[in-house]
Specification:
heterodimer; A: about 300 residues; mainly alpha; about 75% helix; elongated; B: about 325 residues
């Protein structure tokens, strides 16, 4: 049967193309040396925070009363101790868990909301699109940090609230992206073909259109995680985010609001600040490399 | 042009009302109520010592039992008369606080925005013209650093180095306390916060300026200009720069909401008595009146930024006709 042979061949071909596309993206990514280096740094950091309970010499809440408070780094306490004699190094690697967890989960929420709203908007168009896009515009122009601060003030600070608030406020750019792509993709022949064989809207949206967006969405999510980590850090630093004794990189910097600590106890505030900086920087540079690799059309 | 500006201005007025409705609803949806918050703020008594009956009567006296729309219009009416409520902690009128603090924030933001725009645009353009050279790489990494390092950490490092160790600038505040106000003293306080703010904004502007410039120098009319034998300087300044600048106006204005957020953190670190530090204090203290009033103020500021961007764009781009 020539027809089935034909379709089998084309299937094989498309599988090959998909693989080669991924291969090409990977080759493009590899060329971006800085991005590869950042990805390695991130992989190291992630491993470190995942195995934190096994590598941390102390429990992050443990009060080492014998050692004393505000002790400078020593062989026993690599980064010294903080205001209640807890081991700074142990808190640092545990703190990373919370910071990265908040960032990743918050962006997952944003991705779901953004894809949903953007998808419906772009696929159906018309009045639905206008209404949803006006709402998106409002969210796009919100001063995020101000709204997050106000929300936390009203709902109370906790990790769960933080994730929800950041997640619910950061979806607008993703919605914009998905909408734009859906608008152009829905005019393609294969969408019409899918319509003709009676595929339902949600099937077309999720099975036919969404896979095209994996590249740009990965890029957007990467930058989103960086932004969410920064937001968490800022909030926790202000005392409105993750609450002590749970360590997060942001709230470990809170102690340094006192000038005396800032001046003479750099081991308390430089390590967490440096960790946030290096994590966010790596994520951003990796995101840049991913964009060059996955989304070659975009210039910024 | 005037007609366009007037029309653009008139459209924003209903939006201001929407902002007040949104701010009011936002607070309304929050769990807990202002009376409980007020009791916890203004007296040492915990809520447990107050009977449900007393609480109810307090709510009644403050008018919290009226239906929401009645309270909204009361609030709106009060606001239009300049009455924004008072700070729980010391009963200072919010309007007075706002009047004191808005100029401080405007000062900090305009100084840093000015520095950031000039530096960011020039460095971005240089980066684009020297694309794929070591200068470009260094500037790109610097720009990434500026948007990746938390603003409060940059601020802390700056205080650590320049105030605490080199003793060049004061650590915080906007003037030396208990000394008569002098401009020199005030400006000395302004240096660190505005520079830190400028570094962060600059990094962001730089990336956009680079991308914008790269896009423009690939246009055909640049090739034409080169073919005509114009000098490189003339091509860059006369042909490319101006066109690359146009989208930046919009981008900078759209970045303003983000800058407000950064300013809030920065003002808190430097204890700069501006809107941002007031808002952070209010958020920590759950001070409803201040939060509500400031949400409106920030909303209006964002609107104003959009309006300003549109007008500047209209002025800067002669190709656009608005009538």
């Amino acid at each position: 049967m020539p027809e089935s042979a034909n379709s089998a061949a084309s299937l094989e071909e498309s599988a090959f193309e998909a693989r080669s596309q991924r291969l090409r993206a990977w080759r493009r990514f590899r060329k971006h040396k800085l991005a590869v280096a950042s990805a390695c740094v991130l992989a190291f950091l992630l491993t470190m925070v995942i195995i934190a309970p096994w590598v941390a010499p102390f429990h992050p809440y443990e009060i080492n009363i014998e050692t004393g408070i505000y002790k400078p780094p020593s062989a026993e306490h690599w980064l010294g101790t903080d205001s209640v004699a807890r081991d700074v190094w142990s808190r640092l690697i545990h703190g990373g868990r919370i910071s990265i967890l908040v960032g990743v989960t918050a962006i997952t929420i944003s991705l779901v909301i953004g894809t949903f709203i953007g998808g419906i908007s772009g696929y159906y168009g018309g009045i639905v699109d206008s209404v949803l896009m006006r709402i998106t515009d409002v969210f796009l122009s919100l001063p995020t940090l101000i709204i997050v601060l106000a929300s936390v003030a009203l709902l109370g600070p906790s990790i769960r609230n933080l994730i929800l608030i950041i997640g619910f406020l950061n979806w607008s750019q993703i919605a914009r992206l998905v909408r734009g792509q859906f608008l152009s993709l829905r005019e393609k022949e294969y969408v019409m073909a899918a319509h003709c064989i009676g595929a339902q809207d949600h099937r077309i949206m999720f099975r036919h259109l969404l896979p095209n967006l994996v590249g740009p969405l990965t890029v957007a999510a990467t930058f989103g995680v960086a932004e969410a980590i920064l937001l968490e850090a800022a909030l926790s630093y202000l005392g409105l985010g993750v609450q002590v004794p749970t360590p997060s990189w942001g709230n470990m910097l809170e102690g340094a609001k006192q000038v005396s600590i800032l001046k003479s106890m750099p081991w308390i505030w430089i390590p967490p600040g440096f960790m946030i900086a290096i994590t966010v920087l790596s994520i951003n540079i990796m995101g840049d490399g991913l964009r060059d690799a996955l989304d070659p059309r975009s210039t910024l | 042009m005037i007609k366009y500006i007037v029309r653009r201005f008139l459209i924003t007025i209903p939006v201001v009302f929407l902002i007040t409705v949104a701010s009011f609803t936002f607070i309304e949806l929050a769990p807990g109520d202002a009376v409980s918050a007020m009791i916890m703020q203004t007296s040492s008594t915990s809520l447990g010592n107050i009977s449900a009956d007393q609480l109810e009567r307090l709510r009644e006296m403050h008018g919290f039992n009226d239906p929401p729309h009645v309270r909204y219009f009361l609030w709106l009416g009060d606001m239009s008369k300049g009455n924004f409520g008072y700070r729980f902690r010391d009963r200072k009128p919010v309007s007075k606080l706002l009047v004191e603090r808005i100029p401080m924030t405007l000062e900090l933001m305009s100084v840093s925005l000015l520095i950031a725009s000039v530096l960011g645009i020039s460095l971005g353009v240089i980066s684009a013209l020297k694309q794929n050279t070591s200068i470009d790489y260094i500037l790109t990494v610097v720009a990434f650093g500026g948007v990746s390092v938390p603003v409060f950490f940059i601020a802390m490092l700056a205080i650590f180095v320049f105030s605490l160790n080199l003793d060049l600038f004061p650590t915080s505040g906007a003037r030396t306390p208990a000394v008569p106000f002098t401009m020199g003293d005030h400006l000395k306080h302004l240096v660190l916060p505005s520079l830190v703010m400028a570094v962060v904004i600059m990094s962001d502007i730089m990336r956009y300026a680079r991308a914008s410039m790269l896009e423009v120098i690939r246009e055909d009319y640049i090739t034409t200009a080169r073919a005509k034998g114009l000098s490189n300087w003339h091509i860059i300044m006369g042909h490319a720069f101006r066109n690359a600048l146009l989208p930046l106006i919009t981008i900078i204005a759209l970045k303003l909401p983000w800058i407000f957020g950064g300013a809030a953190i920065l003002e808190t670190v430097f204890q700069w008595p501006g809107l941002g530090s007031l808002f952070v204090e209010a958020a920590i203290a759950r001070d409803y009146y201040i939060i509500m009033a400031q949400l409106v103020v920030y909303g209006i500021a964002v609107l104003a930024a959009g309006l300003l961007a549109d007008i500047l764009y209209a002025v800067a781009d002669p190709r656009i006709r608005y009538d």
